[in-house]
Amino acid sequence: MDSTPFRDLLLHPAVQALVAAAGKVETHLVGGVLRDNALGLPLKDIDAVVASRGKEIAERLAETLPARLVLLGGKEFAAYRLVAQDLDVDLWDRAGTTLHEDLARRDFTVNSFALEPHTGTLTDPFDGLGDLARRLLRATTAESFSGDPLRVLRLPRLLLRLPGFSADPATVELARQSVPHLTRVAAERVRDELTFLLEPEDAGRGVALLVALGVYPGLWLDQPGAPLPAGCVLAEGEALRGRLHDLQQVDAEAAAAADGRIARHAILLRNLPLSPTHGTLRDVLARVRDAGYLTRQTTEDVALVLALDDLPVDEVDLRRFLHRAKHQWSTAICALGARWTAGEGLTRWQAVLPRLADLARREGEALFDPPRLITGADVQDLLGIPPGREVGRLLDAVRSAQVDGHVRTREEAEAVVRYRSTG
To answer: What are the pLDDT digits (tens) for 350-394?
Structure first.
C-alpha cells in the first residue's frame, strides 16, 4: 500500500530515533499516530510495536530522545512509555504474537493498521484506511468490546475527537451488548473516560451516545445497560451551551472560569430516574463517589452546584448565592440555567445573569469570604461574657449580616452583636 501520506511522519526525529534504537528488530508504527497523521491532526504521541527486545529498545530510546521511561502493561504484555519534552512514545513488545494478532486486538479499524518505518510498507488487514476515508468508527473484530468493556466509553470519546466521524451501526450494537460488563472495569479507568467525555464544549454528542448505548442512566444507578428513562438530560446538555454563551456575552472572564464538566455532571445526576430504593440524590452521589467514578473534589463541586437549585431574585438572594457558590458561581448559575430552553424561566434567568455577574465583579471576594470585622475575644469584651456557643452564634450573625450587605464596618458589626445579644 502507498505510504505517501506518512512520508513526513517517517522523517520525524522521534521516529528516526526509534528506528535507530530498534536496529534490525521488526518495528511498526501503529494506532493513533497513523490515524491522526492521515487525518491531518496534530501529532500528540507516537505508538509503536516491536517484535522483541522491547525493554532494551525502550532504554536505548530513552537515552537518545532523551525521555523518562515508565513501565506499562503487566503479566499479559510488556509496554513502555517514554515521556519526552514534546511528546510521549508508547512502545509495545508483541513477543510471541504476530503483527496480525497484535492489530486484531485493537479497538477500532482506524487504529488497526501498521506502518513499517524502514520500507514504508503499510499493513491494513481490517481496512482501517478505508474507514478513515469513510469517516467511520468500526470495531476491529466481534470481540473488540467483550475483551475490554472500557472501549464502550472510548467509542463516544473518539467520536468527539475525530471530526465528522460516525459510528457503524453494528459496532454500536456490539458496544451496547458489553455495557453491563462495565462494572468489571477498574473504576478509575471509567472515571478517566467520563472526564474526557464531559470536558469538551460539544460533550452533548458524547452524552447522546451514552444514552443510546444504555450507559446512562444505568451506570450511575449501578444498573449499566438497564432500559431506564434519561429524563431531560440531552435537552439540558444542549441548553448548557446556550447558557455558557449567554455568560460569555455578559462576562468573558467569568465564562472562562465556568467548569462545564462539573455542570454536565450535575445535569446527569439531577436527571436520574430515582426510585425509593435509590434513596436521595445525595445518596446516589455518595455511592457514585464511593464506587470510584468521581473524585472526592469533583463530588464536592457537583454537590454544591446541585444544592444551588433556586434562581436568586432580589439583592439579598444574589449575595447569598455568591457566598454559597464562591468561585463556582459561574458554573452553578449556568447549570441552573440549563433547566430552561425557552419561555418565562429562561427570560428570568437572563435577567438575573448580568446583575449576578456585576455583583461578583464588584464584591466577589468580600462575598465569598467576608473579612473578619470582629473576633470572639472582641465579643467577650464587648458583652462581658465567657467563651462558648453564644460567642459563636453572634459571630455567625455578623457574618450573615456581612453577606446580606448590612454590615461593612467594625462599628456596624458591634451594633449587630449588641442587638442580637438582647434577642
So the answer is: 999 999 999 999 999 999 999 999 999 999 999 999 999 999 999
Q: Tell me: do 235 and 363 sit in the same domain.
A: yes
| Contact (CB, 8 A) for 51 and 94 | yes
pLDDT value of position 423: 63
How far apart CA 93 and CA 53 sit, in angstroms, is: 7
Co-location of 386 and 338 in the same domain: no
Is pLDDT at 319 greater than 80 in this prediction? yes
Range of 69's domain? Answer: 4-133
CA distance 22 to 70: 18
Report the SS3 class of residue 219. Answer: helix
- Whose CA is closest to 360, among 317, 402, 398, 329? 329
Q: How distant is the alpha carbon of residue 251 from its chain centre? A: 24
C-alpha to C-alpha distance for 102 and 92, rounded to whole angstroms: 10
Query: Do 274 and 360 fall within a single domain?
Result: yes
The verdict on 118 and 178 lying in the same domain is no
Identify whether residues 175 and 109 lie together within a single domain: no
User: What is the 3-class SS of 319-385, one letter each residue?
Assistant: HHHHHHHHHHHHHHHHHHHCCCCCHHHHHHHHHHHHHHHHHHHHHHHHHHCCCCCCCHHHHHHHHCC
Residue 5 pLDDT level (bands cut at 50, 70, 90): confident
Both 237 and 363 in a single domain?
yes
Coil, helix or strand for 120? coil
Report how far residue 362's alpha carbon sits from residue 356's, in angstroms, rounded to the nearest whole number: 10
Q: Are residues 18 and 142 in the same domain?
A: no
Tell whether 226 is covered by a domain.
Answer: no
Instruction: Say if residue 217 is preceded by a cis peptide, omega within 30 of 0.
Output: yes
Distance from C-alpha of 260 to C-alpha of 331, rounded to nearest angstrom:
7
Which of 328, 346, 368 terminates a domain? The answer is 368
- C-alpha torsion sign, points 203, 204, 205, 210: positive
d(CA 359, CA 354): 9
What is the DSSP pairing of strand 68-73 with strand 114-116?
Answer: unpaired
For residue 75, the model assigns a pLDDT of 59
CA–CA separation, 272 vs 222, rounded Å? 12
The CATH number of whichever domain residue 210 belongs to comes to 1.10.110.30
Distance of CA 140 to the CA centre of its chain: 26
